[in-house]
Amino acid sequence: MNQKLTNYLNGVFTPYDGVKSVTELKADLHSDLQERFRELKAEGKDDETAFNITIESIGDIEQTVREVANLSRSLERQVVTNFSASNLSKSDFAGVTAHKGKFTSSVLRGSDFTNADLTGSSFASSDVRYARFDGANLTDCNLSVLDLTNASFNKSILVRTNFSKSGLFGTTFIDAKLTDVNLTMTDLRKTVFENCIFDGVDFTNTDLTGLRLDGQTFIGVKFDKAALNEVSFKGATLKNASFQGSLLSKKYYRAIKTVCFDGAMMDKLTYAALKGIEADLSKVTVI
To answer: Is the dihedral of CA 34, 40, 44, 46 positive or negative?
Structure first.
């Protein structure tokens, strides 16, 4: 066998040692190239000519190997991020990248996802009590129908994140921007929101009783059929917010009268909608 050919292949494949599919490719290629080299020698070619023709016959092998390795590693990462039905209590996931990760029906109590990129991941039906998602990217994540008691989402990236029907007792959202987030049919009575921006958030049929939302910003937010008894929007900014109740029940409209809008600023459309259902807007500034 030609040792020079073997050394050449070793040099090309060394950066990808340990990648199974690349190792298999190397073995197959080594066999084929040695056979080709022998054929050229049998035709009367000298060693140098036979070697050069053999190498030229495989084209840009380095690019091929890189593509195979990248594909293999991508598939391996996809396998690794499937943690469904697992017991992962107090696990360390801080800073990881796990796009479309599967954490459904798992025990993740006390786990740390700080600054992780979890775009497109699902945590449905899991126990995520006391978990930390501070600074994490939760774009397009499904966090519905699960227990998030005392979890934290401080400075998290929340875009199209789904929290519907989840338990958020003691859960904190501090310095976070919530964009097109789904918080429908959820109990938020003991949830903490501080210095947040709510853009396109849906609170339909959610219980916000007694919640303090003072000084925060609400743009295009839906509070339709939500429980709003004693909610405080002191100093808040509301633009294009929707407050619609059931035509068959007076409960929603009675609750609106208990909401505090003192010092709030709102656009004309929001002001008119609230005025029409007899909210107390005596200390509101129209912008």
So the answer is: negative
- What is the per-residue pLDDT across 42-69, written as a single tens digit (0 to 9) for each? 888 888 887 777 777 666 555 655 665 5
CA atoms within 13 A on the CB side of 21: 13
DSSP track, 273-284? HHHHTT---TT-
Burial letters 163-175, b for 16+ CB under 10 A, else e: bbbbbbeebbbee
Dihedral sign, Cα of residue 10, residue 16, residue 21, residue 23: positive
pTM beyond 0.85:
no
What is the 3 state secondary structure string of 8-44?
Answer: HHHHHHHHHCCCHHHHHHHHHHHHHHHHHHHHHHHCC
Quote the DSSP letter at residue 162. B
- Separation in Å, CA 159 to CA 19, 140, 149, 177, 245: 35, 6, 21, 8, 26
Angle of CA points 49, 53, 56, to nearest 5°: 140
CA-wise closest residue to 34 among 66, 9, 2: 2
Helix axes 3-13 and 47-56, enclosed angle (nearest 10): 30
How far is Cα 116 from Cα 97, in angstroms, rounded to an integer?
6
132 Cβ neighbours under 8 A, 6+ residues apart: 111, 112, 113, 114, 151, 152
Residue pointed to by tokens 């339709």: 224
Whole-angstrom CA distances from 156 to 35, 171, 243, 253 are 58, 13, 27, 34
